[in-house]
Amino acid sequence: MAFLLVSAYLLLTHAQRAPVENGALLETLKSQVGLFSNKSEHYSAQVRPPGTSRQIPQTIIIGVRKGGTRALLEMLDIHPNIVVAATEVHFFDWDENYVKGIDWYRSLMPFSYGNQITIEKTPGYFTSPQAPERIHDMNSSIKLLLILRDPTERVISDYTQVYYNRVESHKPVQLFEDIVIKNGALNTKYKAIQRSLYDVHMEKWLKHFSLDQIHIVDGNTLIKDPLPELQKVERFLNLPSRIMSSNFYFNQTKGFYCIRSDGRERCLHESKGRPHPLVNTTVLEQLYSYFREHNAKFYQMVNHSFDWH
């Protein structure tokens, strides 16, 4: 709890750019980190900074799971004209949340000023059958961000997250190869593989949105050299260029870039950047081969190619 509140405090002082009454500080921090009471799923009562209001997101990071969505959100939060929702809302992909209505959704957003864009990210939206139409119904002109990485790397990262979650919960685990290969063949029904079929999911989004409403961030590039990818996002969102190379530094211990802004330094949670298992080369080649055709279809859809296997 203390860690979350400290993290929220850093987010609040950075993103909101407005003082908070001391007596309301705890409730404000709880709201920013998304801690709900047992009686209500809405944000706890908090003082509204003068001149601000909660806005429906003008931009949504729709995915993909294990593509780098958290890193993208944290890095965009550097920008003074961006405020971000602290938690994954799952409004458009979970029926039990969607039925609560748009006012419930708005109540989960941070306060923002008129010159700020509100962004929320829920990676599950990209692979959700319902999310594209539901988001279009809310705002047909909304701008969407989609961060993708090599599909095979994404599958392995997906497995790694589930593996560590099961270990921490004292549940049995399986080797990657034992899940991906069934009866000597690739297990294409494995959810992690299904999530990496970018062409299949993109087709659903392009039924509701034009391609110029969807900006694709190269997740492989973002982790190696963040600034160029973030500058592309700034241009896509019609924002002034405010994110600079000095906002990032490479953490040798963690093996990825961390953030420096407002005189503070912060890295992604320790659950990010966990080491992946060494995968049998034959299995890797099977995955590369399976995704190759899907990747080619995706490149054609978005008029852009990526350096994927």
TrEMBL record:
Catalytic reactions on record: alpha-D-glucosaminyl-[heparan sulfate](n) + 3'-phosphoadenylyl sulfate = 3-sulfo-alpha-D-glucosaminyl-[heparan sulfate](n) + adenosine 3',5'-bisphosphate + H(+)
Any GO MF annotation of the entry: [heparan sulfate]-glucosamine 3-sulfotransferase activity
Disulfide bonds: C258-C267
Residue ranges of every copy of the Sulfotransferase domain listed in the record: 57-294
Subcellular compartments: Golgi apparatus lumen
E.C. numbers: 2.8.2.-
Catalytic residue positions: K66 (for sulfotransferase activity)
One GO process term, biological-process aspect: glycosaminoglycan biosynthetic process
GO cellular component, one term: Golgi lumen
Enzyme class: transferase
Extent of the signal sequence: 1-15
InterPro entries in the cross-refs: NST/OST, P-loop_NTPase, Sulfotransferase_dom
Keywords from the UniProt entry: Disulfide bond, Glycoprotein, Golgi apparatus, Signal, Transferase
Pfam families assigned: Sulfotransfer_1
Residues that bind 3'-phosphoadenylyl sulfate: K66, G67, G68, T69, R70, R149, S157, Y257, K272, G273, R274, P275, H276
Its job: Sulfotransferase that utilizes 3'-phospho-5'-adenylyl sulfate (PAPS) to catalyze the transfer of a sulfo group to position 3 of glucosamine residues in heparan. Catalyzes the rate limiting step in the biosynthesis of heparan sulfate (HSact). This modification is a crucial step in the biosynthesis of anticoagulant heparan sulfate as it completes the structure of the antithrombin pentasaccharide binding site.
Family note: Belongs to the sulfotransferase 1 family.
PANTHER family linked to this entry: HEPARAN SULFATE SULFOTRANSFERASE, SULFOTRANSFERASE
Protein name, as recorded: Sulfotransferase
Source species: Otus sunia (Oriental scops-owl)
